[in-house]
Specification:
By secondary structure, the chain is an alpha/beta fold. It has three domains: 7-107, Beta Barrel (Elongation Factor Tu (Ef-tu), domain 3); 124-264, Nucleotide-binding domain of ferredoxin-NADP reductase (FNR) module (Rossmann fold); 272-359, Ubiquitin-like (UB roll). It contains eight helices and 19 strands. It has a six-stranded antiparallel β-sheet with strand order 4-3-6-1-2-5, covered by helices on one side. A six-stranded parallel β-sheet has the order 10-9-8-7-11-12. It has a five-stranded mixed β-sheet with strand order 14-13-19-15-17, with no helix packed on it. Strand 1 and strand 2 (21-28) form a beta hairpin. The longest helix has 13 residues, at 227-239. The radius of gyration is 21 Å and the shape is globular. The protein starts with 6 loop residues before the first strand and ends with a strand. The relative contact order is 0.12. Residues 265-275 have low confidence and may be disordered.
Length: 361
Amino acid sequence: MSERPYRRFIVESVIAESESAKSFHLVPGDGLPLEEFRPGQHLPLRLSIPGRATPLFRCYTISNYGDPFYRLTIKKELPPPDRPGTPAGLSSSFFHEAIVSGAVVEAKPPSGTFWLDTAQQHPIVMVAGGIGVTPMMSMLEALARAGAHRPVYFFFALRHSGDHVFKTRLHEIAERFSGLRMKVFYEQIRPGDREHFDYHAVGRIDVLGIRAELPAGDSEYFLCGPSGMMKAISDDLLAHGVRAERIRTETFGPSSVALRQLISSDESAMNAFQQAAGTTVTFARSGVNVPWTGETPTLLQLAESNGVEISSGCQYGDCGTCMTRLLEGKVQYLHPTGARPDPGFCLPCSCRPDGSVVLDA
């Protein structure tokens, strides 16, 4: 089964959301209705950047719900201060510097399994760090529009007020949605910041403090933010008895935590994963031939660690942008994927070699 084709979208408007983030409202260029999506899913994009010979593939979360447009809220990724010479984020810089009203971008239908089932009634816990709030905004918008009454505990961590995206809209949702309990953390306080209005606590999210405020019972957890924050919170939840399948993360999978638990708890699977003596991976077009040791979990990560470029988006097998021709050999998938590779192709972001392989990359 072939992947769905890309569709042209026109940027209807560009809105500054904070000192570092902008929202881009995309409407269909063909005048037809939007593809339906579930709150929390992302939009796979194909970007044509001037000066670049090949398209750039990226996925950005849709941060709204129920509107006649897709809203993509993108933070401009600057070089890390501790790594001088590192370039700024290519796609985010392109959006911030080159995309204006009237620009055209190409996108596939929304995809991803990091989404909220609004038909359920169990409590929800959302933890967002910085721009990781985008899927939470879509979920909260969907709940507010549906008139939901289920309990939602929303913890939002930010560096400072200059990064506080959707502040006004979040207050509006909180007024309409009686089940929402929101707590905002600022690492730094600026003059004019109002406690209990702009923010509720100073410092980073306290895992112990979060657990102290949560109800008893089987809640579902949605986590999206920096990897360090994600790991600390998910590890703590697991240590205190939360089932791995109830922890959903920013990787857009049913649960990267659940996957990690599955692999580590199955000794035979772990042994098979690590024992790959004599297995080689050849990237034919790049002229790279390397042994497979199991130190990198996927073929995509092996490619990246050896300087081989394979376009990717969601990195969980949902968007299909990494689809690569498998010239020789077989692969094994680590989990079910949303995208179906064409015959003779594979999704390197989600598989490992089953014996020696040759990829057209």
